[in-house]
Amino acid sequence: MSEKSTADRIDAPAVVAPPQHPAVAIWRSATADDVELIMDLVQAADRIDHPSWLTPREDVEETFESSWIDPIRDTILGLDAEGRAVAMGGVMVHPSRDHHLHAYFTGRVHPELRGRGIGRELMRWEHERALQALAELDSPLPAAIFVYAEETDVAARHLAERRGLREERWFSTMVRDLALEIPTIEQTMDVGASAIDIVVYDSSRKEAARLARNDAFRDHWGSLETPPERWSQFVDGPFLRPDLSWLAVEDDRIVAFALGSVNEEDWAVQGYSSVYIDLIGVTRDRRGRRLAPVVITALLRAARAAGLEKAVLDVDTESPTGANSLYGRLGFEPTERSVALVAHH
């Protein structure tokens, strides 16, 4: 914790000037009425930036539904002379603000207009707004600004570095063919330990699963606790598949989990049907009992029984739990990579 507050130690502008570019006729805040415009832009950008998956409409809608985001101040939308959305930026300060402050920004420029300087102006706005948002919290807590980029998005990485962010952590997408043999894993039992049951997720365990997630990820890089509202958006959303989400339960407490979701819109661009494993974790007091591979293989079997062809996940390549090595042993193979660029304040 710093002796100075973010208001004192962060050099943030009092007013963030909107981007300026001759190819963009209007810059304004985005509203919920703009979702269709935004989706047209997002879909055009997705085909170039990450052709193996698509941004769900629900993710865009959450910008206007989340209590911790102020769309008037935290979004910017660029329209051309015909009213088409050609650029968009957004800033979010993580709603968990008890121990660290994390701000994130993301932006899109229509592929037809890239290479003209719009992205530079857009990222300038995003970065300045992120600095302003952290400074306004007037907090002594350590703060950081994050932007994530695909390895192939050299332009975005370069622009972020020009804004003072540095590449700090790499993440790998890994894919497993469900036609391959799925090993049988036996959990390791401690002497005198209670029996641990492996069960599917159901909504009655919603809060227990959130608490388990927060415990399991407390020592993971860049992770903050997930508050109830944000957790509800995930587990009550349209993509989580309870039948493909498995828990290890000990005395009614969740001690390990592998939660899977399905977005069928991804299948056309992937070329196969798949389950995405959103979260895998083991509470810190139950690590070392092989619970992670137990719940993962339960999920893999369920996905295969459901007729899906592959399982996909993303992993921190420097995970303190050695997760990337575990996934390799379970038959996952790395495909794409992304990087987190960070500025600490």
UniProtKB/TrEMBL annotation:
Keywords: Acyltransferase, Transferase. Transmembrane segments: none annotated. CDD domains: NAT_SF. The keyword Acyltransferase applies. InterPro entries: Acyl_CoA_acyltransferase, Bact_Acetyltransf, GNAT_dom. Residues 25-186, 196-345 form the N-acetyltransferase domain. This is GNAT family N-acetyltransferase. It comes from Microbacterium aoyamense.
